[in-house]
Amino acid sequence: MRCFKTMLLLVGICVLVGCSKQAPDSVTKPTVPIPTPDPERASLQNQTWELQAENEEYGSEGLTATTYTSSTNQAIVRQVIKNSQGTIVREIITVEGIPRFDITYDDTGAIASIVKSAPSGLSSEVSYYPNGQKKAEWTTQQNGERIGQGWNKAGKLITEDHLDKGKYISAKRWYDNGVLRYEATFKNGRPQLRIFYKPDGTVEKKVRGRR
Asked: Which of 35, 122, 138, 202 is a Cys-bridge partner for 148, taking CB atoms 3.0 to 4.6 Å apart?
């Protein structure tokens, strides 16, 4: 009988411990945009490379560049740029003379930004926080339109911009909690209507024109 009571006590303790471990999982976590691997970039970076030139002077900040060409396609060229400490700070991959990927790295070796270009004129530029989350992304269409978005460290969208040939079409800003803070529409780059919101989501004021 004593053994049976002891077993019940142990089971009760295990249940309590198990519940305390499960509690954190019930907390809703923010959706964070983590960069997905780009198949084209991975394919280009994983080429078998042949060394062409090593540690050539690059710019005027003590940088050096080492150049490689693909062993299977001489039109694919890779430049690895290092600082004076020998740390890789940038990597440029060109295909048939056209830059396809321009990658920068931070002091820890993590990707800080990636610029991807295509012969068609389409391009994208993505910057990252040190933990790999997206910080900002800009895409450029063939017609010159640019769309940009920015996220805070919690993964919440906080900025959104739409431009046409360098002139604003629309813009939005959010508070860190996800509530819309500001929105504006433009014509020929000039503001037409701007609406400001309070943290509770109610309208604070509306401004028409350039006032």
From this structure: 138
